[in-house]
Amino acid sequence: MNTFGQLLRLTTFGESHGSAIGGVLDGFPAGIAIDEDFIQYELQRRKPGQSRLTTSRKEDDEVELLSGVFEGKSTGCPIGFIVRNRNQHSKDYENMRELFRPSHADYTYHAKYGVRDYRGGGRSSARETIARMVGGALAKLLLRALGVQITAWTRQVGHLVLDTDYHQLDFSEIERNPVRCADAQMAEKMAALIMEVKQEGDTIGGVIECVVQGVPAGWGDPAFGKLHARLGAAMLSINAVKGFEYGLGFAGSSWRGSEQNDAFLPGFTTATNHSGGIQGGISNGQDIVFRVAFKPVATILQPQSTINLAGEATTLDARGRHDACVLPRAVPIVEAMAALTLADAYLAQRLSRFD
Amino acid sequence: MNTFGQLLRLTTFGESHGSAIGGVLDGFPAGIAIDEDFIQYELQRRKPGQSRLTTSRKEDDEVELLSGVFEGKSTGCPIGFIVRNRNQHSKDYENMRELFRPSHADYTYHAKYGVRDYRGGGRSSARETIARMVGGALAKLLLRALGVQITAWTRQVGHLVLDTDYHQLDFSEIERNPVRCADAQMAEKMAALIMEVKQEGDTIGGVIECVVQGVPAGWGDPAFGKLHARLGAAMLSINAVKGFEYGLGFAGSSWRGSEQNDAFLPGFTTATNHSGGIQGGISNGQDIVFRVAFKPVATILQPQSTINLAGEATTLDARGRHDACVLPRAVPIVEAMAALTLADAYLAQRLSRFD
Amino acid sequence: MNTFGQLLRLTTFGESHGSAIGGVLDGFPAGIAIDEDFIQYELQRRKPGQSRLTTSRKEDDEVELLSGVFEGKSTGCPIGFIVRNRNQHSKDYENMRELFRPSHADYTYHAKYGVRDYRGGGRSSARETIARMVGGALAKLLLRALGVQITAWTRQVGHLVLDTDYHQLDFSEIERNPVRCADAQMAEKMAALIMEVKQEGDTIGGVIECVVQGVPAGWGDPAFGKLHARLGAAMLSINAVKGFEYGLGFAGSSWRGSEQNDAFLPGFTTATNHSGGIQGGISNGQDIVFRVAFKPVATILQPQSTINLAGEATTLDARGRHDACVLPRAVPIVEAMAALTLADAYLAQRLSRFD
Amino acid sequence: MNTFGQLLRLTTFGESHGSAIGGVLDGFPAGIAIDEDFIQYELQRRKPGQSRLTTSRKEDDEVELLSGVFEGKSTGCPIGFIVRNRNQHSKDYENMRELFRPSHADYTYHAKYGVRDYRGGGRSSARETIARMVGGALAKLLLRALGVQITAWTRQVGHLVLDTDYHQLDFSEIERNPVRCADAQMAEKMAALIMEVKQEGDTIGGVIECVVQGVPAGWGDPAFGKLHARLGAAMLSINAVKGFEYGLGFAGSSWRGSEQNDAFLPGFTTATNHSGGIQGGISNGQDIVFRVAFKPVATILQPQSTINLAGEATTLDARGRHDACVLPRAVPIVEAMAALTLADAYLAQRLSRFD
């Protein structure tokens, strides 16, 4: 199933070393101004080679919108798009035809499909997220028109944690440093750690925090379509994600109900926001706050024990150009998936009442 | 959207104080022996009033299968079922018509729908999980025939954490104690804590761990249908859940790639299982391991500040019979949702290859 | 797949001789007054035993709404419902365990599922349409609030055709005669034919015409969701339906474009309505007009050649109480499926524009 | 909703005068040999300009498969593809910005979306079927490997009807004449009629018949997923289609049950095939036979009364290059949609039993 969303549906296709990554966004309402520069800008944010912290691969990712836009506005028809793959070094992956990289998807794709495009991870490559960036940028254009703002930042890299409450953070700092951390000093420490890990040929994980501001009460569904369940599925579908929590999350497991409950105040606001902006699966008008855990990238530049197609022991010496830490480039992907989820919930909300 | 699953689809309906909770399980293959006693047994595990730890409400939850079963076997046609609601004390909720309980879904339902069945939480009540238990029990019958075993237990209550590796645990202990903890001594401590919290009229949260054994390599989909994304959405759709992680989860964010990667061993197994049995969204044949964080129940028997329908400040004195800690009763619900997710992934796997 | 609709989704379950027929209507907006008497009235229209023309089976089909309605209004939550099966004569079908009735679904279910509830056709019985009647009645309540009116009538029985343009018909006649023909004289002829066929132990088919008035321009989708494609799928899913056409339909195949085109008139109406109210798959504000062809019922009270489970030749002597012509009872079913389709299209239309 | 199918899902995009027509085929199993020449051949069959009977527009429709194929085989990942639009004469349509062509989708799109790509019909253009041809060709590759053969031909043009039973037809004749009629003599008459109509600046409709051979018993679903309901929806989603029938269809409405029933014969075949190969919505192993009615093309080269955006009366003088009869080019489109429907039903059938 390569489709995300119920009413606003993004269907993606493409492999890392194929002709193109692309997708179709269906269900996007007519009449929204399509700012193509903004879409391209969002793609740039995800792009490799933005700083010495990220992979040195140069990917000139240019999006071509193929349909669904006329005279600068959405027409209500599906928006098809492609981003050509260029600058691949497929030969770097020739040795992967025969063996399985540890903690990658090589073995599981082999087990599932028999046939496998082993070059650069094929469909399991994080290049697939290019299509999410385009879909997410379009969703952001819709949400922007509704006054909804999505902001993510690197909260943790390895043991380094920025645990400042987000109200105390200066969001304009995020795009000023290559780590996309919301604090300049912490960003420097994180950058240093990433460089250190990189020089060891190793990799490191972390946590991204995201806040969504301006969502009115009423978005999200009961039962299986709870807004946080949809957000969780969205985030967990991003490569390397291992965990999702919202509001107090795991930490709240040791709180008492009397501490955790958010008292209502006149004006339909709450005294605290331990709920993370969602109650019973539906937004309550407060900021939506969640965190996403990323494991360290599986490709390390150190020898690793593994097996080949025949199941025999062998050693992997990975080459290729890889990120030592995906967090900086994952920040816009988290935002994109949040945007797709929220725009979908907005459309669903338009159907909830008869009046 | 009250339907869960892509190929095996559970559609649920029902409110806490309506006539019945029920559902339809569609896509269940023909020819599976339907053990109705097992379904009823699973319902009993979720039932209130099993011990002094849980609510004293007596719910005689008897399932009636209405279709899709003939002479003891599934027919491939949809399995409709209902569980009648009995023993409700709707009057306990009369005061909730006019006010919003903090950190409940009262306000958000009101904001979304205008019309609201306020009795016992209506559709947002955890009684809705009865339908999940029935669907999950049916899914377990399918999985059992495939040799797949799902086991969940209470890993944490408040600050009390059982962090023993599950290979060291005796799973047969789980159903022997009212907390459904996999360790007898820890279970006693947890029970004492829950009683203490209950006597304060307060509530407490915790974490459930779940392991799925016997899943072969190949279940799960790329992109948006990653097995852990589906499991995450399933768990986050359970009432009171605030977080989900699999494998190393959040803790792994501070590990290096060289530490976290699972080396492959001859025979297509792995030296470690930090991946939690899923790589690239697809099962790799190792045990699937995940954890689910629950907040403390929002209904506390202490006065709380809140507002009424007009947005004016007021005080809530909750009555009713409630759990001080949902974890013990949530254990089978976690298993049920895991079963539905995995049975769905099994069916998808049957379509992955042409041969 | 036992679910109909995209946004308004009816999931049905139940077999002819099982405990109950039922369903879940999900996506029904909150705030619509639920007139339970109307739902029961619609069920009565479908019921057997209304006249000597139809089967003498007495089915006291009483619907019980189990959820989704509170204080007389829809709540936006799924509406679950059941209708108990009573008065079945399962023994009438005992001989069908071993053989396949010609032109029934016995053999195909056997081939598909292996397991088969042979009593009264099981899931393939027209009793399944009870759930469609309930869902359709709810959809009619929604459409009525929008000023949309659906009217179907028996246009043809055997060789007897009422080919009067519907503008010349008196719709109030339809419910006055047992054939549900919109012309009293033709109704008498049709009734006589049906009685004649019945006395021969034979059956006869016919055509139902349906007109939908009050649909504004804009309902329906491009490409695969064309309004007439959805209507066609809805009608073809009714037991015994063999054909669907709208507007000029098959007859228009021999017209010239210059004759068939509907000239636009000032005020956004058209001079003619050969399009049947739908252009490019989207309603144009004119009446929607379509016709549905039904084959004669497959159960005849004459000996027929057939085979048993082993594939050996045998003879079937059908018993049981059956309709000699389904058209009279199919009229409300056609309306119900049209209502579900149109209510779904209405919801989709609410999402087409951003403003 | 621009997606067709449940398990094998084709999502299409693209407007007549946009950059490209394209789509994504998701759910296609791994391991199927992808014959790109065959896909291109199928595209050629749909292409304009094949003979003097069809439009003189030259469309060099070259498909580019962008993903999902590796070393000549499907990988189980989504197959994205595009066909560039070239040779459009957008200026031919400049006058359509302001007015609505009778019996086209101009007005209804305007009413639905507000924004409208008026050039060449935009999304409502039959050029959209290019994506169906590609998806259908892929589905044919799957079906061919299963021994399923789909053959459609022009059965009627205007009043000229080829009503020979298909067993008496020579299918190899179909591709030998420009009308795609299965009889050479009738093809000549039809061609003459089309030329005559074309010289008048008029258009004409007709009927296509399609037979599917080699489908085993068991494909199709009960209730809403009946195989003929899916086929009907597929056909009715093709531009200009006004009717669908299978087996005896409308004609059978005047037959008696005793005449229409198909007696079973030893060996699980039937003496006749009035059912058209489908009973109870599920294939019975006999040939599947259906017919599709097409209206005459709405674009005629004669002055027509219409209105402009303001609702004022005006006259349309259509220009552009158009088909006088779509039947010849629609034959492969009917086959393509049948192939997508049947391949989807095949996948569903793989899930019906547990064994």
Features:
homotetramer, 355 residues, alpha+beta, Chorismate synthase, AroC fold, five-stranded antiparallel sheet, 25% helix, globular
Q: Quick summary of this structure?
A:
With 355 residues, chain A is α+β, with helices and mostly antiparallel strands. Chain A is built from seven helices and 18 strands. Chain A has helices at residues 36-46, 106-113, 129-145, 184-199, 227-236, 257-260, 327-349, and strands spanning 3-4, 9-13, 20-26, 63-65, 69-70, 73-74, 79-84, 149-157, 160-161, 206-213, 241-246, 264-265, 269-270, 278-279, 282-283, 288-294, 304-307, 313-316.
Q: Mind explaining what this structure looks like?
A:
Chain A is of the alpha+beta class and 355 residues long. Chain A has one domain: Chorismate synthase AroC (Chorismate synthase, AroC fold, 4-Layer Sandwich), CATH 3.60.150.10. Chain A contains seven helices and 18 strands. In chain A, the strands form six sheets. Chain A has a five-stranded antiparallel beta sheet with strand order 1-2-3-7-4, covered by helices on one side. Chain A has a five-stranded antiparallel beta sheet with strand order 9-8-10-16-11. A two-stranded antiparallel ribbon of chain A has the order 5-6. In chain A, strand 8 and strand 9 form a beta hairpin. Chain A is globular and about 65 Å long. Chain A starts with a strand and ends in a 6-residue tail after the last helix. The relative contact order of chain A is 0.17. The interface between C and D is large, with 111 and 112 residues. Strand 11 of chain C pairs antiparallel with strand 11 of chain D, so a sheet runs across the interface.
